[in-house]
Design a protein that fits this description.
heterodimer; A: alpha/beta; Aspartate Aminotransferase, domain 1; Aspartate Aminotransferase, domain 2; 14 helices; 37% helix; globular; B: alpha+beta; OB fold (Dihydrolipoamide Acetyltransferase, E2P); six-stranded antiparallel beta sheet; three-stranded antiparallel beta sheet; 4 helices; PyrdxlP-dep_Trfase_small (chain A); Probable glycine dehydrogenase (decarboxylating) subunit 1 (chain A); glycine dehydrogenase (decarboxylating) activity (chain A); PyrdxlP-dep_Trfase (chain A); GcvPA (chain A)
Chain lengths: 450, 128
């Protein structure tokens, strides 16, 4: 059979089989035990023409809500994406480029990554940033593995239970090492912050690291300085998971002495895109760089003394160190890192402050109004940035369903993460106007009264 | 290629010098450093670690490759060459002297018998 997109003919295949000394494709897979092969028919519809496919996809796309007012966050935020971002990243030099192994022909890509690393270092006050990993959750898992390499004699990992539950699920899958235990530290039921007494009681000389998130899953800001002090008593490493936009206002991880700082880069000009691709921000102290996973781009001079960029410290990486590499992620999120770079370049130092301010002002305003004017209750008393958790008199799912009819995505029902079915997480961004917020408050009171 | 007569060697291009009270000093050979070219980092083992014959005790990183250093003898790491942290190029400049990697207090000096003599090692690198 000749296929328009597959170059091999049956005759080509036969020649290849003969050369390899096998009879069929199946024989090439003989190492896979029989019971693992899927036996039934795959449920894949038959081929349709390009025109039919476009029609089908457009019809599906029309089922989406358009111009939805988004008050949902919980890890991904609906920030405005400036038009210059899709314009620049669509240039084929960036869009089609692959891993810049050959520095001579990759200077543009390498310079972009170098600048991305530099702006993330400035934002976080950390000393070194890699070229990025997949997303915030994998960044956290990689950070924990890195901490274990930095403290090879210690076998305990502590994490705040107020970290995003999806991140913790990835960590539990990823950090599955013999002899290493993962233990959760409780959050204070009143403030929503890390329970420092619980942290003190679980921290010991065998603890390699403690990881926390700020603002945490409940939107509550943690005290990185106090946590650092506690960890110093036992010489444990500090891993901070941060929201990059929040650093326009809050103390960056480098200032309170994080050893490793990771975060989800999506808020930095990357569209929501149904959950990905996103961007794993990954920074550390310079003294830890040898155990850092991922690609690092460095600045150098060529033979004529001109400025140039290269992949550096590659001996940590899989293409050289094989099974002993620091990570088996051997790529990065280049295009998304470029989006973050453009976004931060557009904002500049004063822009990110203003943006953070605009986000937090909206969250505080909305929370005040909801508490005063509706039967909604604030769940945690700790300070917030752009997000908070409320308790509704009825199930959150029902409120969200009713609000969707009016074109408003009211929040995220926390029952799906194992919390009370009346808990809802609400987030605000600069995209929401004062009128949007007024309408939201009115709608919520109507739903709850009705 | 320098292959001093007073040292023992391995097939993995380490050299061993026995000092005083059953202490083995380990490094990589002149041939090994020239094959690696510019050494940029040496990962050293923790002092006090018990190691078994054949185990990886250090790794030597060059610009585009990395080589493991295996110990030909069992024992305890009693000292590492701290100077390599600041100047890993000592491995290139003086592989049998300033470029030594670690010292092991041997628990079974008999294991040394399996090492190569300078003559045997010369033959080995001539074949490579």
């Amino acid at each position: 059979m000749v296929h328009p997109f597959l170059p091999l003919t049956d005759k080509d295949r036969e020649e290849m089989f003969n050369f390899l000394g096998v009879k069929s494709y199946r024989e090439l897979l003989k190492d896979i035990p029989e019971e693992y092969f899927y036996k039934g028919e795959l449920n894949i519809p038959s081929a349709i023409s390009e025109e039919e496919a476009v029609e089908l996809l457009e019809a599906l796309s029309n089922e989406n809500f358009h111009n939805l007012k988004i008050f949902a966050g919980a890890g991904a935020y609906d920030h405005y994406v400036p038009k210059v971002i899709p314009f620049i990243i669509s240039r084929s030099e960036f869009h089609t480029a692959y891993t810049p192994y050959q520095a001579e022909v990759s200077q543009g890509t390498l310079q972009a990554i170098f600048e991305y690393q530099s702006v993330i270092c400035e934002l976080t006050k950390m000393e070194v940033t890699n070229a990025s990993v997949y997303d915030g959750a994998t960044a956290l898992a990689e950070a924990i593995l890195m901490a274990l390499r930095l403290k090879p004699e210690r076998k305990k990992v502590l994490y705040a239970e107020s970290i995003h539950p999806n991140y913790l699920a990835v960590v539990k899958t990823y950090v599955n090492l013999e002899g290493v235990s993962l233990e959760g530290v409780k959050y204070d039921r009143v403030t929503g912050q890390v329970d420092l007494n619980d942290l003190r009681s679980k921290l010991d000389e065998n603890t390699a690291t403690f990881a926390f998130q700020t603002p945490n899953f409940f939107g509550v800001i943690e005290d990185g300085f106090e946590i650092r002090k506690i960890l110093n008593e036992k010489g444990a490493l500090l891993i901070s998971v941060y929201n990059p936009i929040s650093l326009g206002l809050l103390a960056p991880p480098g200032e309170y002495g994080a050893d490793i700082a990771v975060g989800e880069g999506q808020p930095l000009g990357i569209p929501l895109s149904f959950g990905g691709p996103y961007l794993g921000l990954f920074s550390a102290r310079m003294e830890h760089i040898r155990q850092m996973p991922g690609r690092i781009i460095g600045e150098t001079r060529d033979l004529e003394g001109k400025r140039g960029f290269v992949m550096t410290l590659q001996t940590r990486e899989q293409h050289i160190k094989r099974e002993k590499a620091t990570s088996n992620i051997c790529t990065n999120q280049n295009l998304c890192a470029l989006m973050a770079l453009i976004y931060l370049s557009l904002l500049g130092k004063s822009g990110i402050k203003e943006l953070a301010f605009q986000n937090t002002v909206r969250a505080h305003y909305l929370l005040d109004r909801l508490v005063k004017e509706t039967p909604v209750k604030r769940v945690f008393s700790g300070p917030i940035f752009n997000e908070f958790v409320v308790e509704l008199p009825i199930e959150a799912e029902k409120v969200i369903e009713r609000a969707l009819e009016k074109g408003i995505l009211a929040g995220v029902a926390l029952s799906q993460f194992g919390y009370s079915e009346k808990w809802m997480s609400i987030a605000t961004t600069e995209k929401l106007s004062a009128l949007d917020i007024d309408n939201y408050v009115t709608l919520i009171s109507e739903i709850l009264r009705g | 290629m320098l292959v001093p007569d007073n040292l023992k060697y391995t097939r993995e291009h380490e050299w061993i010098r026995v000092e005083g009270d059953n202490v083995a000093v380990i490094g990589i050979t002149d041939y090994a450093q020239s094959e690696l070219s510019d050494v940029v980092y040496v990962e050293l083992p923790p002092v006090g670690k018990q190691v078994n014959k054949g185990e990886e005790v250090a790794s030597v990183e060059a610009v585009k490759t990395v080589a493991s250093v295996y110990t030909p003898v069992s024992g305890e790491i009693i000292e590492v060459n701290e100077k390599l942290k600041d100047d890993p190029s000592l491995v290139n400049k003086d592989p049998y002297g300033e470029g030594w990697i670690c010292k092991i207090k041997m628990s079974n000096p008999e294991e040394l018998k399996e090492c190569l003599s300078a003559e045997e090692y010369k033959k080995l690198i001539a074949e490579e």
